Amino acid sequence: MTEISKILMEELNRCSRDEELLDFLHYYESKQRNWKEFMQEQLFDLELSYEKFGKRCGFSKNTIRSWCVDGVLPRSREHFIKLGFGLDMNEEQLNRLLQDYGGYASLYAKDVYDAICIYVIRQRKEHPGDEAYSYPALVHYRERYEAMCQGHSFDQEYRDRVTTGVMHEKLLLIADEWEFDAFMTEHMDIFRGTHSKLIDYMENYIKMRGGARYEGEEAQSLHQLARRFEKPQGFEVAYSKLKRHGILPERNMLIDFGIGMTMTLAEINQLLELAQMRPLDVRNRYECIMIYLFHNHENANPMLSLDNAYSMKEVTQNPEILKRCEEIITYFYQMEEEGILEEEGDDDKSLRTLYEDYRERYGKF
Question: For residues 259 and 247, what is the distance between their CA atoms, to the nearest angstrom?
Fold first, then answer.
């Protein structure tokens, strides 16, 4: 978290009423990242129309217009990468685009697709104009190596032993396609487990919320649980792509999953971290409001973390999650013994209900 983000977070935490939140949002509007201005600058610098800019980057003119006029964000991490290729960005520039505007993680050398991106971007600088390093070529590389990846086992010990920094340095030293193919083949056992911890974390919550609590009840399926989310069918498709092909869901979809699973703010941020994404960002208007709602909801429901910890212990085999559950349980016992654990609030609304209330009052933020 940057220094300005820390300062803004401290001030946001002082907001206890809706009026204070709205004043905060209005005052710091200039601190919010402005996608519309960024896109307008790109068109101005390149002196291109919506249509010509779209052809250059592989998007329709209507999509470009929605970005420039309405400030609509690209729908996925993949679209940010595609735009970065259209703007001929280097790795550092693309990482800033992903992080600052999409809220996504920077390119990650232990991810099969991101490793390909790093390699292709570097080769583009060495061989400008070569179609072998265009965006369509990137897609071709992805299909080839993801298919290879499916046939490999996953070695967690090997993955932990080889650091991300070492992987990145090796990628930067690759001179040609033959060396790259050798690199990818050598590290397939690492790539196979790219999102294994994220999948494990999400599956534990699905088991936890879907399991029967009383004798005679039936466990709920993912299809039934997905009704809690804003885009039920879209989530099921995204979750299937994550498990089958290692394609990350959109950031907002992961946040919505956390809301549907009754996660706390800390658990949502853990979910985003496992997806190599930044925690909820106070400088993003939508996420700023979500942080405020999470804080209020947890203050009204102080036992939420404890309930989640107890439930998670029953369904997870992940030692890291189990350790965190033990820490939460121990913390709450200490709070109770010291007499500083507040009683549950009277105004007990689910986070989903609060979220819908805010959407109705303030529109889609």
Answer: 21
- pLDDT tens-place string over residues 289-321: 888 888 888 877 777 788 888 788 878 878 888
d(CA 119, CA 121): 6
Closest CA to 60 of 83, 40, 38: 83
Secondary structure letter of residue 228 according to DSSP: G
3 state SS of 69? helix
Distance of CA 31 to the CA centre of its chain: 21
| pLDDT reading at 357 higher than 60 | yes
Rounded to whole angstroms, how far apart are CA atoms 157 and 275?
20
What is the C-alpha separation between 311 and 84, in angstroms, rounded?
Answer: 42
pLDDT above 90 covers a percentage of the chain that reads: 21
Q: What are phi and psi of 128, to 5 degrees?
A: -60, 135
- Model confidence, pTM: 0.70
Q: Give burial (CB, 10 Å; 0-12/13-18/19+) of 325.
A: buried
DSSP characters over 344-355: PPS----HHHHH
Rounded Cα distance between 232 and 257, Å, is: 10
User: What's the pLDDT at 341?
Assistant: 54
Q: How far apart are CA 254 and CA 206, in angstroms?
A: 13
Report phi then psi at 152, rounded to 5. -105, 155
